[in-house]
Write a structure and sequence with these properties.
single chain; 1274 residues; alpha+beta; 6-stranded antiparallel sheet; 18% strand
Length: 1274
């Protein structure tokens, strides 16, 4: 089979190669046929071109010239096309002619025929290759050969027929083209005859041509076109004759006959053209004479018309005035006529000169030259007449222009003088004292006050007018002065207007100078006007929305306010009802936009008058400058003229310049008067402003000192008295000093110090006041000097009071400490006598109320009570005011901290005692007895060590003054962990538990730290249920088992867990993996039929129950007993390494399975450190485990960061008393407690700074300690 497949494959490849070769042959044959046809066609075209050129070379010279012109035109067209910019515009496709369509169809048919011949040849070759085949193939091939021969015969016949058809079409096309060319030549001849027709008609009737030049040009153009086309047609017919010779005999004969007839027609056309050319020269000569005569006659008529128009300008009498409009129109007509005559002369001269250069005409008619010379003489005379007319027109124009120029200049200068006079009349009132700048300023200051008064009265301006005038018809100066003095209120801080200023106001209101003010004048002055600052719309309603536009107000327009400003209810814009001064239209206008755009600005009356005055002067200056420039420009234009009317006008214009300069000088003088009036007004305003400023400065200085001076004087008096009292108290000894007097002095000093500090701040604030700070002279400078002295005095008093307050407080502290030390000594002695411990003593003294009287009553039996009763009573008062159970216990016990290593001995006398042990630096001891001095001098005291509870004598201070022991606070510990801490009876974790410590519980340290005896535990390495390997504690140091051995079985290899005992009927629940633990639920049973030992079990990993084969029928055991699986009894840590303090992986849960990988190992451990404590909350006493969460503590702590002091323990709705600063110290008043709502540990404390008591958190939300204990003497 493989051989057959290989043979078939090889045979297929050979057939593909043959087919590929045949297709290649067919393609190559087709290309050969096409190439042969193409070569043949190209050869024919080259031959035709060559014959055409030879025959064309024998043509006439005209034909060659025509061809050369055509080629030159074609070259020029190609060059223009090359030079033209390329445009990316696709030309529309050309519609093919019938000949082109026939040519394309012929090519397509030839291509198809060639392809068919190639296909037939390929078929013949293929059959010949297969002719040697035998059998069925050979028979089939023999049948195909006749068919193929028939196809070849038919194809040959079709090709021949096609060639004949193509030749007939070519002959027809040749004849059609030749006939068309001859017809075109006949058409050109017809155009020549049509152009010649006007000449024949004129000759036949004996008349002249109307436009001979035009007719001659048309005839010459027609002859030129016909000659060129004639030459081209001759060449075309010669080439077609050569082409006809290549046809078959019949076609060639037919073509030659037709072309011969066309040649005859073309020769007839050429003959007619030659006859027309012969009569052309004679006609041109005659037309030239007539045209030259016509042009000269036209020139003479135009010059005569120009003379008539010029004569109409000349005046009939000397000095007669001429209407400017008539002069302008006449000059325009004369100039137009003269210009037309000049153009006609130029054209006629050019025509004659051109004809004089035409040699053909002069040769054809010798008399033409003389006639042209005579016509040139007539043109010269016409030119001379035209020049005379031009000179006359120019003289008349100069006279008229000179008269008009002088009149215009006089009018401009006279107008400038009149404008200066008007400006002087308008500006003069502004320069007078009665109505000048200062009066305007007084009026501007008075009008707002008067307007305010009118607004407050009913009836408006009319009612106030009646009030002022009284019984008179108008307001007199006397009634106005009286009204202004009595009714017009001066604003606070401003000076009232003087009588002189009010007189000026009245004079300004009396605009007509009649010594009275009318109602109309008062109403006019009360008008509120605005100037449009930005383009804005005037609407018919108050609301912008829904309103119609009345018109648009442009910048600079004046608007009168008709009603008070009101806000748009929708947009909140301030709008007024106003009237436009320009057209008196009324409507509502927006004063300012929401974005800060100001549309209307208040109208400044005085500013408007000043601007108007400046505008008048500016306009006068502008007109003067224009007049100066106008006259200078005209003089400059006439500069080159030395005589004539315009030269005389130049001198007259120069005489006008002094008048212009005089106007300029007067305008400068007027401006100088204005500047002088402004200067005087400015000086008056400055003088008034200076007086006002001085008054305000004096008033400001008095106001500043009015507040400061009484307070500084009071502070000075009180501080001096308090300082004197404090000085007298400090001169007394501590025993002579009364604490009440010290407290009163401290209070007085603090109050006076605050008073001095407040006064000092007032002085400092006044000194930084900008007016005081920058004052160089005047009342403010004097106030500044006084303030500096007060600043120095108050600063001195404040510092002195502070210094004395500190001294008195130090004395108060010294007295209090001495009294407290005496009280504690007496209290300890009395408590020892009555054998009452501190806790019991506190309960004894606070049965009813813990009072100073109860305290003193307890110690009144002591000897010191009689001698120093006052000191002891003061100490009792202090303790009763701030005592707590914690502070009371701490007050009755004394503790020392070792600052330098020292021995504790058995007796007071160091020489007779033995050392018990050495106290190390930092160790704390409790004082038992009172301090005593030995014979050798050192102060010693009996103490008990906290560390190991040893009693003995310790040196407090050596002979050389060395401190070995320093007083310190009572030692406490505070428990911060959330889980309870056990309190054991003995220093052993295995001893009985006597109580527990809760979170925040405070304990007194009684003994320790002390280490327990060494212990042992069992550690076990194994694997948890999730496959992790590590170490855990099998049995703790106390002997408590954490893991218990579990009886389970282990799968030795993979086995199925089914849901029934019968393995054939049950379904597999899952597969048990090797090493997986299972628990036996029922006893093993034997399947007798299959001889299998099976049992019901439960998988420990997922709890699935089912049946499993314990032993197979071949004796194979699939399950065996395990002695290394444990179950967790108590949650225990699972760690990475053997050491119990190593990193913890996770916690083994109760009931979790644990597989041991090794035998248990013993771990020996040192005893833990323990402290003997007494709970301040429960009173439970015992030993607790020392650790990180059991921290050394003190009753006094300082804040590590700022915190809030709250009124209650809860944080749900805390009332903050105040903010405690970082570093501030607080005293613990009670045992800390946990806020149940927030879970935070809270402590009741008292701030030592101000004695304020409240609750504070001991830790932040991130676990950072807020309180840090302060160890030292309480």
């Amino acid at each position: 089979q493989q051989q057959q497949q290989q043979q078939q494959q090889e045979q297929g490849e050979e057939e593909q190669k043959e087919e590929g070769a045949e297709s290649n042959n067919q393609q190559s044959e087709a290309s050969e046929v096409q190439e042969q046809n193409g070569n043949a066609t190209a050869a024919k075209e080259e031959e035709e071109e060559k014959e055409g050129k030879e025959e064309g070379g024998e043509g006439e010279g005209e034909a060659e010239a025509a061809d050369g012109a055509d080629k030159k035109g074609a070259e020029n067209e190609e060059k223009e096309e090359e030079d033209a910019p390329m445009e990316e515009v696709k030309a529309p496709p050309k519609k093919m002619s019938a000949a082109e369509e026939f040519q394309e169809a012929s090519k397509a048919i030839e291509t198809v025929a060639a392809e068919a011949q190639v296909a037939v040849k390929a078929a013949v070759r293929h059959i010949e290759l297969q002719s040697s085949a035998e059998g069925l193939v050979g028979e089939a091939i023999s049948k195909l050969q006749p068919k193929l021969a028939d196809v070849q015969t038919k194809l040959t016949s079709a090709v021949e027929t096609m060639k004949e058809h193509f030749e007939r079409r070519k002959v027809e096309h040749l004849i059609e083209e030749s006939q068309d060319r001859v017809a075109e030549s006949e058409a050109f001849l017809a155009k020549v005859l049509a152009a010649e027709e006007p000449f024949r008609q004129a000759e036949s009737v004996g008349t002249e041509l109307q436009e001979p030049g035009k007719c001659i040009a048309e005839l010459e153009s027609a002859l030129d076109q016909a000659g060129k086309h004639m030459g081209g047609t001759k060449t075309f017919l010669a080439m077609k004759k050569l082409a006809a010779k290549r046809f078959s005999e019949a076609s060639a004969t037919r073509s030659a006959a037709t072309l011969a007839d066309l040649q005859v027609k073309l020769e007839e056309v050429a003959k007619n053209l030659m006859e027309t050319k012969k009569g052309m020269l004679q006609r041109r000569t005659l037309a030239t004479k007539r045209e030259a005569e016509r042009r000269v006659a036209q020139v003479e008529a135009a010059v005569a018309e120009a003379g008539q128009e010029t004569a109409a300008l000349l005046p009939t009498e000397e000095g007669q005035a001429i209407d400017p409009e008539f002069m302008r129109t006449s000059c325009q007509k004369a100039g137009t006529a003269q210009q037309a005559a000049a153009v006609a002369i130029t054209e006629a001269r050019g025509y004659l000169q051109k004809q004089q250069k035409d040699t053909k005409l002069l040769t054809a008619d010798p008399s033409l030259s003389g006639e042209l010379v005579k016509l040139m003489e007539r043109l010269t005379k016409a030119q001379s007449d035209l020049d005379h007319h031009r000179a006359a027109l120019r003289d008349q124009e100069h006279k008229f222009v000179a008269r008009r120029l002088l009149d215009d200049a006089n009018e401009i200068v006279t107008g400038l003088e009149r404008h200066l006079e008007t400006a002087t009349q308008k500006i003069e009132p502004l320069l007078s004292a009665r109505t000048g700048f200062y009066a305007g300023q007084c009026l501007s200051n008075f009008l707002p006050l008067l307007r305010s008064y009118i607004t407050s009265k009913e009836g408006g301006v009319k009612a106030v007018f009646d009030e002022i005038r009284g019984e008179s018809e108008s307001i007199t100066q006397e009634s106005f002065m009286k009204f202004a003095a009595e009714k017009i209120a001066t604003p606070e801080g401003e000076e009232p207007m003087t009588e002189e200023q009010l007189e000026l106001v009245f004079q300004r209101l009396d605009s007509e100078g009649k010594e009275v003010v009318t109602l109309e004048a008062l109403e006019s002055s009360m008008r509120i006007q605005f100037v449009v600052a930005a383009t804005v719309l005037m609407t018919d309603k108050l609301a912008v929305k829904g309103g119609k536009t009345v018109r648009k107000l442009e910048v600079g327009e004046a608007v009168e306010q008709l009603e008070e400003p009101v806000k748009d209810p929708d947009l909140g814009l301030t709008r007024i009802k106003g009237r436009a001064e320009k057209d008196s239209k009324e409507g509502y206008i927006t004063v300012a936009g929401n974005q800060g755009t100001s549309y209307l600005n208040a109208f400044d009356l005085e500013g408007a008058r000043e601007s108007k005055m400046e505008g008048i002067l500016q306009e006068c200056g502008t007109k003067g400058l224009k007049a100066q420039k106008y006259i200078d420009a005209k003089i400059n234009e006439l500069k080159s003229l030395q005589k004539g009317p315009l030269a005389d006008t130049k001198s007259a214009l120069q005489e006008l310049l002094p008048r212009i300069r005089k106007v300029a000088e007067e305008r400068k003088g007027l401006r100088a008067k204005i500047m002088e009036a402004k200067r005087k007004h400015s000086e008056q305003a400055k003088a008034l402003e200076k007086q006002r400023a001085e008054r305000l400065l004096k008033q400001a200085a008095e106001e500043i000192m009015a507040e400061i001076k009484p307070k500084t004087e009071a502070a000075d008096t009180k501080c001096t008295a308090a300082l004197e009292e404090a000085t007298q108290l400090l001169k007394k000894t501590a025993e002579e000093t009364d604490e009440t007097a010290l407290d009163a002095s401290i209070k007085e000093l603090d109050e006076t110090m605050n008073l001095a500090s407040t006064s000092l701040e007032l002085v400092k604030e006044a000194l930084v006041n900008e007016k005081i700070k920058t004052a160089s002279d005047g009342p403010l400078r004097e106030a500044r000097a006084l303030l500096i002295k007060l600043k120095v005095r108050m600063s001195h008093l404040e510092g002195h009071c502070k210094k004395q307050s500190l001294a008195v407080k130090a004395r108060r502290k010294q007295v209090s400490e001495e009294n407290t030390a005496l009280f504690k000594k007496v209290l300890r002695a009395e408590a020892a006598k009555k054998e009452l411990p501190p806790q019991d003593l506190y309960k004894h003294l606070s049965t009813d109320t813990f009072s100073a009287e109860a305290l003193f009553k307890f110690i009144e039996a002591a000897p010191e009570a009689g001698e120093k009763e006052a000191q002891l009573r003061a100490a009792c008062r202090d303790m009763a005011a701030s005592v707590t159970p914690l502070s009371f216990v701490a007050a009755l016990e004394e503790y020392y901290r070792c600052t330098k290593d020292i021995a504790i001995t058995t007796a007071l006398d160091m020489t007779a005692s033995k050392p018990i042990r050495k106290l190390t630096q930092g160790e704390i001891v409790e004082a038992i007895g009172s301090a005593e001095s030995t014979s050798t001098g050192p102060q010693r005291r009996k103490c008990r060590t906290i560390t190991d509870n040893k009693e003995g004598w310790v040196t407090l201070k050596g002979n050389q003054g060395t401190d070995f022991m320093q007083p310190t606070s009572k030692p406490y510990v505070c428990y911060f962990a959330s889980s309870p801490l056990s309190i054991h009876q003995e220093c052993d974790g295995a001893s009985d538990e006597v109580g527990t410590l809760a979170q925040g519980e405070l304990c007194e340290v009684l003994e320790g730290p002390k280490k327990e005896a060494p212990t042992e535990c069992l550690r076990l390495r194994g694997q948890t249920s999730d496959g992790k390997i590590g170490w855990t504690t099998l049995m703790s140091h106390s002997g408590k088992e954490h893991l218990q051995l579990l009886k389970v079985k282990i799968c030795k290899q993979s086995i199925a867990l089914t849901n029934t005992f019968d393995i054939s009927e049950g379904k597999s629940l899952r597969k048990l993996e090797p090493g997986e633990a299972i628990e036996l639920l029922e006893e093993e049973k034997e399947d007798t039929e299959r001889k299998l030992l099976r049992a019901k079990v439960k998988a420990r990993s997922d709890g699935i129950e089912g049946y499993v084969t314990m032993k197979g029928n071949q004796g194979t055991y699939y399950v065996e007993d395990s002695d290394c699986h444990f179950v967790c009894q108590v949650a225990v840590p699972f760690q990475k390494r053997f050491a119990p303090e190593s990193e913890e992986i996770r916690e083994i849960a109760v009931g979790e399975l644990f597989q041991a990988l090794e035998d248990p190992k013993i771990q020996a451990q040192e005893g833990a450190e323990r402290l003997k404590v007494r709970s301040c909350k429960t009173g439970a006493t015992g030993w607790v485990l020392a650790g990180a969460e059991l921290k050394d503590w003190s009753l006094v702590s300082k804040l590590t960061s700022s915190a809030s002091l709250h009124e209650g323990v809860g944080l749900e709705e805390p009332k903050e008393l105040r903010k405690l600063d970082a570093g501030e110290q607080v005293e613990l008043l009670a045992v800390p407690q946990v806020d149940e709502a927030s879970g935070e540990l809270r402590a009741k404390c008292r701030a030592l700074r101000d004695g304020l008591a409240g609750f504070i958190s001991m830790r932040t939300s991130k676990g950072t300690d807020l309180l840090k204990p302060v160890f030292g003497k309480m």
